[in-house]
Amino acid sequence: MRRMGKPELAIRLLLLLAGLAIAHLGVALFLESNLGPDPFNVLVQGLYRSLPWPEWMSHGRVHLLVSLLIVLALLAVGRSYIHMGTLVCMALGGPIIDLWTVPLAPLFPDSLALPWRLLALVLGCVILAFGMTIVIQSDLGAGPNDLVAVVLSGKSGKPFGPVRVGVDLCFALAGWLMGGVAGLGTLVCAGLVGPCAQVFLPVSGRLRDLCLNKIRGDTP
Q1: What string of DSSP letters covers the chain?
Q2: What residue segments make up the domains of the chain, in order of their start?
Q3: CA 107, 60, 52: angle at the middle one, nearest 5?
Q4: Were both Cys, which of 5, 39, 143, 207 would link to 168 (CB 3.0–4.6 Å)?
Q5: In the chain, what percentage of residues exceed pLDDT 90?
Q6: What is the pTM of this model?
C-alpha cells in the first residue's frame, strides 16, 4: 500500500470503523433471526466438533485460530491484501456484535413468527454486504473470511460476487461434512451476501472517493 498522509489515513480508518459497525449490525440481525449460522461459523463449528481440541479451547478460540491461519496463508499468496484493518476487524468484530445485540435481542422473542425472522435474516444479509464493501473499499484491509474472496477475486480476475458465493458454499460444505450444523440462514447468507456485495462495491467506492475528495479539496 502506498504511503498516505494523516488526514487520508484518518478518513479511511473512519470508513473502516463505520463499515464494521454497519456490517456487524447485519450480523447481529442474522444471528437474532436464529435460522442457522453463517457459512464461516459452520466451518468453525465443524472443526471444533471434529478435532480433539484441549479442554480450554472454545468455539470462539477456534474461530480466532482459524482466522489467524487464514491471515498467515494469505500473507504467503497475497501479502498486499493484509493491512492494519485486518487486525482491527478481528479485534472489534465480536464486541461490536455484542453491542448491537443489546438493543436487538428484545425485538426477537422466542415466539416471533417465521416471516419476521426471514425478514430479519434477509435484511441482515443485505446490511452485512453493504458494511463489508465499505470495509473493503477503505483499502485498509478486511476480515480474514472476507479476504479469502477478495484475494481469489483479485487473483482470478473474476467478479467478487460469484467468488464470494463459491467461498461461502465451500465453507458451509466443509463445515457440514465435519459435523457442523447448517440451516436455512446458512444457505440464504451464502446465496445473498456475495451478489449484494457486488452491487454495493461501486457504491462504497464512490462514497470513499467523495470523502477523500473533501479533504484533498478536489471536486467530485
Answers
A1: -----HHHHHHHHHHHHHHHHHHHHHHHHHHHHTS---HHHHHHHHHHHHS---TT--HHHHHHHHHHHHHHHHHHH-GGG--HHHHHHHHHHHHHHHHHHHHHGGG--TT--HHHHHHHHHHHHHHHHHHHHHHHHTTS---HHHHHHHHHHHHH---HHHHHHHHHHHHHHHHHHTT----HHHHHHHHHHHHHHHHHHHHHHHHHHHHHHHHHT---
A2: 6-212
A3: 135
A4: 39
A5: 70
A6: 0.90
Answer positive or negative: Cα dihedral of 110, 25, 161, 172: negative
Mean pLDDT of 42-67: 90
Contact of 135 with 30, CB cutoff 8 Å: no
Answer whether residue 1 shows pLDDT above 60: no
